[in-house]
Every structure is written in C-alpha cells, then in structure tokens.
Design a protein that fits this description.
Layout lengths: L4 E9 L37 E11 L7 E11 L2 E2 L10 E2 L2 E11 L6 E8 L7 E4 L10 E3 L4 E8 L4
Antiparallel strand pairs: 1-2, 2-3, 3-6, 4-5, 6-7, 7-10, 8-9
C-alpha cells in the first residue's frame, strides 16, 4: 500500500467429497488387520477445512539505515470447521473452526552487524482449539490433540559470511 506498509492475503476453498472407497482385500494368512478409515463415502475428506484465510500486515519502521531494519508484523488465521474422522466412528468427528492472531517484531542487521533479533507472540488471544481427533469413540475413549496455546519468545540469529 505504501513504501512502509505491506498487506498480503491468502484464501483456500476446498469442497471435498469422497465418492467411493475401495479397500483391497488382505492376503489370506496376513498378520495385519484391516485399516481403520478416517472418512466414509459421501463425507468430506478428513482434515480438509472448506475455508482457510490468512491476512498479514507488515509495517517497515522508518529508522536510519545505520540502525539496521525493523518491522512489525501481525498475522490473522481463520480455519473453518473440518471433519477429522468419519461421523460413524466418533460423535466428535467435526472439529470447530478457530481464529489465531500472531505478532512479531524483527530487528535485522542490528547496528549494521551480522545479528538479527525478533520478539514474537503466537496465539495472542489464547484460543483453545482442537487439531486432531483419533476416532476411537466407539471403543469408549476418544483422544486427540489441542492447538498450541499462547506463546511468547525471542529469536536471535548470527549471519555468517558477507
């Protein structure tokens, strides 16, 4: 938009639908059991959200070049609800949508040196969200994974060479 402000956006739209599942038969004397399915015919593809949106704004701070370069970046990510496993295998088959906000301040070539540093915060709003469901509801125990909570940190990097 300007010399100091950069905006970017990405959007993905997936409308998945499994038409048919063909599972080859196992050999007669195999020690393996039939695979468990994460989807079923007529359902969406597992872990494929219909909508995903990423918006990023970067502001390049107008500082003298002998200080290095500084930028502040904020990123917003929306991930639509998605089906993790077949509806038959779990009452928790569909994971709800979630929103993430990430912030980053970076200072590169600090005082024209080979050192870069940044301070960051991810999931600033401390959104609680699910990233995985294993589909064992029918066996009496459903498991899964939750998303990364709010996290802060510092990165320091030394650049070797010219």
């Amino acid at each position: 938009l300007t010399d100091n402000l950069i905006l970017s956006a990405s959007y993905a739209y997936l409308h998945t639908h499994v038409d048919e599942l063909v599972i080859p038969p196992l050999p007669p004397d195999t020690v393996f059991s039939a695979p468990s399915l994460t989807t079923a015919a007529g359902e969406p593809l597992s872990f494929a959200p219909e909508n995903k949106l990423v918006l990023t704004a970067t502001y390049l701070l107008p500082v003298p070049s002998d200080l290095g370069s500084m930028r502040f970046t904020t990123t917003y990510v929306f991930t639509d609800e998605m089906q993790a496993v077949s509806e038959e295998s779990s009452a928790l088959a569909t994971m709800p949508d979630y929103n993430l906000l990430n912030l980053n301040f970076a200072w590169d070539q600090i005082f024209n040196s080979s050192i870069d540093a940044s301070v960051f915060a991810t999931n600033v709003t401390d959104e609680e969200y699910v990233t995985y469901v294993n589909g064992l509801w029918l066996y009496g125990l459903e498991g899964g994974a939750v998303g990364i909570p709010r996290m802060y940190g510092v990165r320091i990097r030394y650049n070797f060479g010219p």
